[in-house]
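Why Protein GRAVITROPIC IN THE LIGHT 1? Reviewers of the renewal asked for a concrete example.
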Amino acid sequence: METVKPMVVASKGKLRRKFAKVLNIHKLTGVAPEEEMKKIKFDSKNANLSESFYKLEEEYERSLALEALLAKLFATVSSIKAAYAQLQYSQSPYDSIGIQKADNLVVAELKTLSELKQCFLKKQVDPNPERTLVLAEIQELRSLLKTYEIMGKKLESQYKLKDSEIIFLREKLEESTKQNKLIEKRLNQSGQLCNPLDNLHLSALNPTHFITYLHHTVKSTRGFVKLMIEQMKLAGWDISSAANSIQPGVFYYKQDHKCFTFEHFVSNVMFEAFHLPYFSTSSDSRSYKNKKQSKAEKEMFFERFKELRSMKSKDYLTARPKSRFARFCRAKYLQLIHPKMEQAFFGHLHLRNQVSVGEFPETSLCSGFLEMAKRIWLLHCLAFSFESQAEIFRVPKGCRFSEVYMKSVAEEAFLPAPESSPESEPRVAFTVVPGFRIGKTSIQCEVYLSLS
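Here is what the prediction returned.
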């Protein structure tokens, strides 16, 4: 810049002299010569360019110095962060030498921060900002690397600690499992943990046994419904549309509640003609309720209950392919799984053709169906083993809820809805699981309540 300044000054001097000469000529003639005016304009342009260049260079140096100061500031902060991380790491486990080193480093970096502050206040410019920028970047990267190394060591020590905790908890779990097995063995020996349906005699049969087995039946039914919904999703079916085709116009509190619609459909099919012997709709079965059930008939149903309960469905069907239970399974499957549904699930009707001739292939859907069919058939046998034959009932749509005869599958029905009026109350949309009566005992049906 030293070479530029004299030229600027000389230009200014020349400019003044030119203006004086022009003014004198103007005074004498009243008009400035053309050549003189061109020279004045050219010299004025050079002077303005030189001043602009000088200002830009000064501004660039000022911004570079400020950038160097900020870079050094952030690098110092990163160093303090790394030193503080080292200080924390050295405290657990306790390392006095590491703590002393980290403390000294923190103090030194704080002093550097104080010096940077004074430089900024006194406007002391860094003589070599480019070098400072590079050194600050190197310092910051080193600090970050050190911080990550300390974090890695800390995570590694935490991992070892958690690993030791897992080993301890596993040993504790094994010990608790052994104790539970020992307690279970003692309870079994004392007869306090036996299944109420084990070693059951007809004379000791009561509604509690029926309720217990009903819970098993509902569990297997819901397992089959889950399998069926999974097959629908794999086949690309619209679950909402399918549920709406079974029960149109129902308000569901959650999307997941639509599974109850399919459970309602499956229960209706499987429990159809439950009140008749062997689920038969023949004329003899229709008149069965009009005659009193004999002791021999009750014993027959109870023996069939015990016989099938002790066997797997597949084994029983293989041993007795022409039994009433086999006919029941074939009829219910063909009624429950529509040909279009099977075509969508598997792309063919081979499964349906096999079931029609009495063969149930080893598929998840067939296995789930046979388990459900067995439970419902056994519940039917148990119902006909009572002195007072068990009766099945369902609640019509639109009925008011009654805690005596009903149980809601959705607790959300009892929560106040913001858009509903205080007078409105949820009504029965459909029966999910039917209810039963055995003498004077009523077993609640499970219903889905919806706002009308």
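Confidence is low (pLDDT under 50) at residues 1-33, 283-287. This is the kind of structural detail the renewal will allow us to pursue systematically.
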